[in-house]
Amino acid sequence: MPRLTIPNPFNLHTDVCEMCLYSLADLCFKRITLYPCLQERGHDKERQLEAQLLQKKLEEEKARKFKANPYPYTTDYPVVPPKPEPKPCTRAEGFQLESLVRHEVEQQRLMEERERMEREEAQRRIVRAQPILKEDPIPLPQKERKPLTEVQQFELHVDERAVQRSEFDNKVKEKEITYKRLREENEFAQKIEEEKALKQLRRTLVPQARPLPKFDRPFRPQRSKKQVTRPKSPQLQVNERGARRHPFMR
Predict the structure, then answer these.
(1) Which DSSP string corresponds to 85-135?
(2) CB of 36 within 8 A of CB of 19?
(3) Which pLDDT value is given to residue 31?
């Protein structure tokens, strides 16, 4: 038959013991005391920290002490490698740069240009007398005996256009005066006709009294027999697009 497991009680370092509870009760009465279990845990931590610091200090001191490796124990003579032959010293050689070549060519060109300018300047400094001129190098022109140009009167098209424009302006002014006179005559005749018609209307006009209202048949408002207006949804394309996009929502 299976037997039930009976657990045994155990204590942890983090649990507060009964003595600590008594110390907690002392704290309520303003008595500063430490828990014995907490004191023991604090001492253990301090001892561990001191041991770690001591171990680290010993390792640092051991690392500072130099200890050479011992010579191997053997009866044979050690093999000493021969001394290598000395190599000749390295001799530096200059670089053949294209910029140096271009610099030399440019310096050579500048030197030649300077020499050429100096030679030209020296040639210009030499004094040379001008030769005697036997003939005048710039002879004066001889006057020609031609008759003077006769100025003839010329006709401009602007003069003809000015005459035509003046005739046109006169015709326009005459037309404006004629139209203005006709307009005034028409307005005067129309005014006389209106006055005559008004006088004739006043002669034929007879005053009439306003009829009395009919009190035997008063106005009685009645209820309308029309049906109530029913709203109708417009056929918009938005509904059709929504139905095509979401066919399973309805």
Answers:
(1) PPPPPPPP-----HHHHHHHHHHHHHHHHHHHHHHHHHHHHS--PPPPPSS
(2) yes
(3) 44
Quick one: how far is CA 67 from the chain centroid?
70
CB 41 within 8 A of CB 13: yes
The runs of H, that is alpha helices, within the chain are: 18-28, 36-64, 98-125, 157-204, 237-245
Tokens of 18: 């009964």
Residue 110 carries which side chain, given as an amino acid letter?
Answer: L
pLDDT digits (tens, 9 = 90+) for 21-61: 444 445 444 444 445 556 687 788 899 999 999 999 999 99
What CA–CA distances, in Å, run from 138 to 90, 141, 155, 248?
81, 9, 44, 112
- Report the C-alpha gap between 37 and 19 in whole angstroms: 8
Task: Give the separation between CA 60 and CA 99, rounded to whole angstroms.
Answer: 60
**Mean pLDDT throughout 3-11?**
80
The sign of the torsion formed by the CA atoms of 178, 184, 188, 189 equals: positive
> Which of 7-16, 44-53, 151-160 is the least confident region?
7-16
- For residues 109 and 111, give the distance between their C-alpha atoms in angstroms, rounded to a whole number: 5
More confident residue, 42 or 224: 224
The DSSP output letter for 193 is: H
What is d(CA 1, CA 15) in angstroms, rounded to the nearest whole number? 37
Token pair listed for 16: 């507060």
Contact (Cβ atoms closer than 8 angstroms) between residue 224 and residue 217: no
| pTM for the structure as a whole | 0.24
- Give tens-digit pLDDT for 53-96: 999 999 999 888 888 777 766 666 667 778 888 988 888 888 88
